[in-house]
Specification:
- It is found in: Cytoplasm.
- It is an enzyme of class 2 (transferase).
- It comes from Nakamurella aerolata.
- Catalyzes the first step in hexosamine metabolism, converting fructose-6P into glucosamine-6P using glutamine as a nitrogen source.
- Its EC number is 2.6.1.16.
- 54% of the residues are buried.
- By secondary structure, this protein is of the alpha/beta class.
- A 6-stranded mixed β-sheet has the order 1-6-5-4-2-3, sandwiched between helices. Strands 8-7-9-10-11 form a 5-stranded parallel β-sheet, with helices on both faces.
- The protein has 14 helices and 11 strands.
- The chain binds 6-O-phosphono-alpha-D-glucopyranose.
- 6-O-phosphono-alpha-D-glucopyranose (G6P) binds next to helix 4.
Amino acid sequence: AAAEKGGHPTFMDKEIAEQPQALADTLRGHFDGTRIVLDEQRLGEDDLRTVDKVFVVACGSAFHSGLVAKYAIEHWTRLPVEMELASEFRYRDPVLDRDTLVVAISQSGETADTLEAVRHARRQRARVLAVCNTNGSQIPRESDAVLYTHAGPEIGVASTKAFLAQIAANLMVGLSLAGALGTKYPDEIGREFAELEKMPQAVADTLALMEPVRQLGRELADARAVLFLGRHVGFPVALEGALKLKELAYMHAEGFAAGELKHGPIALIEDGLPVVVVMPSPRAQPLLHSKLLSNIREIQARGARTIVIAEAGDDAVAPFADTLIELPVVPALLQPLITTVPLQILAAEIARSRGYDIDKPRNLAKSVTVE
Ligand code: G6P
């Protein structure tokens, strides 16, 4: 078993380390110089050209990967994109027709609720595109088109490399749609793709900076709860960070949109409560950056222990960070591919310090094939 883990203490550590490769493998071969190439395409170009609305359905971390991509897909395609938990979507009466594209995201391709959401959509003649990590699994088999994530097998129950690969694949779905709809031209798609292609290196650079995060994880082993705040694409990252901590460390954790602070979460702040804040780039998103800065001041004034994930060189936030984790500079929409990494490592380290098996958290299954 030690050999299977490639020298890492757990599969999760191995899979976190494999993330640059997972991203590179997922991107490889999907841009032909003019458009994004899917892996299986049983839809004509015309089918995509008439799409006027997108639903994205998924569960767990896959759902968060879709939330991250929603910001980019709306920006690039100018289509309304609705994110739906598969377990809600399948029992609702969503407004769908043949011009609706439903994107179903699933690492395993076998999650019961996501599969039923696909069937629910197809019965209403919507087209379905699967983003999946498992060749030949049920969800891609029942979909009209497929984009595979090539993260390789993921053994750790809590998703890590498959999650980053899902984000990259979702972004390619967005670029593919933008090409079909004509909202982006081949040269623009090529430019966005080139930015994506730099991300495996950015993730590798991020991984090299994680020692202070491990140290922090050991310090927080006895915390009672941790809150996570973010805005824009940092919001789903906050949700994912909280989910990882719940899954692995069995610690109360919640992710919030920082703009909601005054609508409830601020009441939870007490002396010493760790709050992880995912900062937007001061350069690329100055307005959002200033909003988060004032959120941090508010929670720090009330005694929170602020843990700030920020772009390198973000001098404005430094005075308000009890712990500052600085990450490489990347385009704003791609930031989640790197800001997620310290949150995975933080959760793993807290769990380890508490003596838990991070590959097999209690009560959880890798793939939820029954409701
Ligand atoms: C389980 C796993 C999660 C995963 C979710 C969805 O809860 O523990 O890591 O995100 O299922 O799985 P899927 O295979 O559909 O992506």
